[in-house]
Structure formats: structure tokens, C-alpha cells
Design goal:
The protein is mostly helical. The protein has 2 helices and no strands.
Length: 73
């Protein structure tokens, strides 16, 4: 059930879709990074510090794009 803030408008639906896609990208990126990290030799630098930054940047841009899209109706 939707709350009063989750109006069923095309803009809100598009915003939720873009946010879901961004979060899916973050999860997949982390999953691939973990798998690649497990295959790397022990001496290989793992660079784990950059993934949260990339995830935050991806979410920021997805929300910025979703916010800038104007309803077509």
C-alpha cells in the first residue's frame, strides 16, 4: 500500500525506476568487485575504498537526472 507521499504520478514512477536501477547497479558493482577481489592474488591491491565513492556518485547522478526530468503530461 502506498503512503500519502507516494503519489502515483508518471514523474514519481520514473523517479522510482531510476532509483531502483541505480541501486541495482551498486549491488551488481559490489558483487563483481567481491568476485574479482576473491580471484586476485594476495599481493594485488584491492582498492576497496573507491567502491563506496562510486556507488554514492552513481546514486547522486541518478537522483539528479530523475529530479531534472519534467513530466510529459
Amino acid at each position: 500500500m502506498r503512503g500519502p507521499r507516494m503519489a502515483a504520478s508518471p514523474c514519481a514512477a520514473r523517479f522510482r525506476s531510476i532509483a531502483r536501477t541505480a541501486l541495482r547497479w551498486v549491488v551488481e558493482t559490489e558483487r563483481h568487485a567481491d568476485a574479482a577481489s576473491a580471484r586476485m592474488p594476495d599481493f594485488w591491491p584491492r582498492n576497496r575504498g573507491r567502491w563506496p565513492d562510486q556507488a554514492a556518485e552513481a546514486i547522486f547522478w541518478a537522483l539528479a537526472i530523475a529530479w531534472s526530468i519534467e513530466p510529459t503530461m
